Amino acid sequence: MSALSKSDIPPKPPRKNLSREAWISAARRTLEKRGIAQVKIEHLARKLHVTRGSFYFHFASLNDLHDALLNEWRTANCIPFQDLREKSFDTGLQLFTDIVHVWVDEDPFSPALDLATRDWSRTSASLAREVKLNDSLRMDLLTEAFQKMGYPEDESIVRARITYFHQIGQYALSFKEPRKTREQYQPLFGSVLLGPLIEDPNLKK
Q1: What torsion, rounded to 10 degrees, do the Cα atoms 72, 76, 77, 82 define?
Q2: CB 164 within 8 A of CB 138
Q3: Cα end-to-end distance, the chain, whole Å
Q4: Quick one: 77 and 52 in the same domain?
Q5: Domain that includes residue 34, residue range
Q6: 119, 142: one domain
Q7: Is residue 65 part of a domain?
């Protein structure tokens, strides 16, 4: 059998070269499922079936990828609330409704990304400060909503905290239910969170 000529040898397939967005997407999925400690170049390269060199074609370092992930969080989970701060609302109910829709619609808000970033902040003082600022913004918006509804300042703060802690607690428990069920309960949640408190004779005025 004669040796194969160069023309008979099938060409090698071109080396796969992923986009920057593909790396960020894979890193985000890892962050949400396994935490920031598992967002590693070698792990991602194996998952994407490429070499480490592909990573450095798009990123200067792992910190560069971390910054890209934080920008994902800021864009999806922070800007929607910042936009609400810039808007003018005639009624507190409309402001409250718009806040709730950011969470419920999940477009672009991501509960998984929010929870993963909160976990990440436990290992980064600068990120912890940023998360705290965003928590404060969200609770300030809720407080403003309750005050516009006519509740006094202290009660508005308490109602805002109850509302926000409930939402964060739901994420922390990874509580999931069908969208139909969530929509069914949504008016009831609204009634409980927005309705007047029962007068307790044991509470000091």
Answers
A1: 110
A2: yes
A3: 102
A4: no
A5: 17-59
A6: yes
A7: no
204: its two tokens:
């000091």
Do 128 and 159 lie in one domain? The reply is yes
Structural domains in the chain (count): 2
Token pair in block for residue 92: 């507190």
Over its length of 205 residues, how does the chain's per-residue pLDDT go in tens digits?
A: 455 555 555 554 444 568 999 999 999 999 999 999 999 999 999 999 999 999 999 999 999 999 999 999 999 999 999 999 999 999 999 999 999 999 989 999 999 999 999 999 999 999 999 999 999 999 999 999 999 999 999 999 999 999 999 999 999 998 888 878 877 888 888 888 888 865 555 545 4
Whether 44 and 127 map to the same domain: the answer is: no
Q: Do 29 and 19 contact (CB within 8 A), yes or no?
A: no
64 lies in a domain?
A: no
70 in Cβ contact with 37 (< 8 Å): no
